UniProtKB/TrEMBL annotation:
Alphabetical UniProt keywords: Signal
Gene3D superfamilies recorded: Periplasmic binding protein-like II
PANTHER family for this protein: ARABINOSE-BINDING PROTEIN-RELATED, SUGAR BINDING SECRETED PROTEIN
Signal peptide positions (record): 1-35
PROSITE patterns with a match to the protein in the record: PROKAR_LIPOPROTEIN
Organism from which the protein derives: Streptomyces axinellae
Region (Disordered): 425-446
A Pfam match: SBP_bac_8
The protein, known as: Extracellular solute-binding protein
Amino acid sequence: MRDSRRTFLRSRPVKRLTAAGVSAVLAGSLLGACAEDGGSGSSTGDDGKGKTTVTVGVFGVFGYKQAGLYKEYEKSHPGIHIKENATERNEDYYPALLNHLSAGSGLSDIQAAEVGNINELATVQADKFTDLAHAPGVRKSDFLDWKWNQARAKDGKVIGLGTDIGPMSVCYRKDLFKKAGLPTDRDEVGKLWAGDWGKYVDAGERFTEKAPKGVSFMDGAAGLYNASASGYAHKNYTSDGKLDYKESTAVRTSWDLAMKAVKGKMTAKLKQFDTQWDQAYANGAFATVVCPPWMLGYIKEKAGDKGADKWDVAPAPRPANWGGSFLTVPENARNKDEAVKLAAWLTAPEQQAKLFEKQASFPSSAKALDMAAVKDAEHPYFGDAPIGKIYSAAARGIPNVVLGPKDQIIQQYIGDIGILQVEQQGKSPDEGWSAATKKIDDAAED
C-alpha cells in the first residue's frame, strides 16, 4: 500500500485550494472545473434515465468525481444518478448560492460551502438548511470537534458535514537553511520554533544574518499573520459573537510579529498567489512558507523538478487551520432524503481516506486520521516527509476557533491592505493598520 500511495503523491494533480479567498484567486489557472447546468430533479441524460438524480453543487474541484466516488455510490445504489454542478470560483459560487437560498429555488440537492462562509450560513441562514447532526450514518465522533462546531448554529443545528481541512506546517528549503547556518533536519527545524510563532521570527533573524544573496526567510508577512492569528480560539470575535478584532490578543500579537518580520527585512514582500509569488518558488527567492496540505501540490507545481528534495516539511509552531469546506443540504432540495444519505456517505471516514489517497484532500474525520492511507503518507518531493504524521498531529491540536461573518474580509484587508502597505509601500505600521481597519469597519457596517 505504501508504494501505491507514494506513487500517487508523486503524480497527484494540484487540488482545489480551499482557503478563504484562495479558491477565487487560483481557480482560473489551477482548477479547470467546467460548470454544468444547474437544477435538481429528474435526469435529462442517458446515464440517469429512469433514476433519481441527486445534484451536487461545488466550487472548484472537490475531487469526488475524479476519485471515482460518485461511480462507487451509484454502483451500490442503482436507483441513484449523481450530477455535479461545478462553478470555478467561490467568488461567483457563493453569491449565487445566497441568491438561490433567498429565492428558494435553483438549488442543488447538496451545496458545498467554504469555511470562510460557513459561519454566515449557520448564523443567518440556518433555517434554510437541513439539520445533519442526527442524519442516518452521521456520527459526531467521526469528525474533529472543532470542524464539527464550525457548522453548528446557535440552537445546536449542524448545517454542514466537514470535507477537507488545512492544518498548517512550515515548508522550508533545506539547501538555503544550510547556507544560512541553520539545521536542516525536519525535527531539529521544528524545534527552532516549537510552541511560539515568535520563535519562528527569531529563526528568521538568524537566517537573515547569513542569508544567501537575494534570499529572504519568508515569502511575505501576511502568511505569518494568518498562521499566528489562526492559532487562537478567539481571533476576531468574542464568544458571544461581538466583533472585537481591534482588542483581540490574537490580532495584535500577530500584527506585531508581522511588523517585526518586515522591519527585520525577513520577507520577500510578496503577495501570495500573485504571479511574482509563483515565480519566486522557481527562483528560490525565499526559504520558508506557511504550508497547509493543499500547499504541497502548489509548491511542487511552481518550484518544478529543480526544487525536488530541496523542500521539506516541519511542524508549525502552533496548530492552526487554513482552509476547508462542508457539504450542506438545503431544506428546499428536491431530493432531500437522498441528498442527506449521499452527503453522509461522501464525508464518512472511509471516503475521506480514499479522497486523500487519490486527490490529497486532508480529512476532517478524526477516524480517517488513524487509517493507514492517511497516517503513513509520505511525500517524495519533500524528502519523503511524513506528511500524514505531521498534519494529523496538527489537526488534532487545532483550537475551537470562534468564527464570525466577517472573518474572511478581516483577514483579506489586514493582509492585502495593511501589511502590504507597510511591506511594499514603506508606510508605517500605524498607517497600514489604519488603512486596514477603515476598510474593515466600512465592510462591517454593510
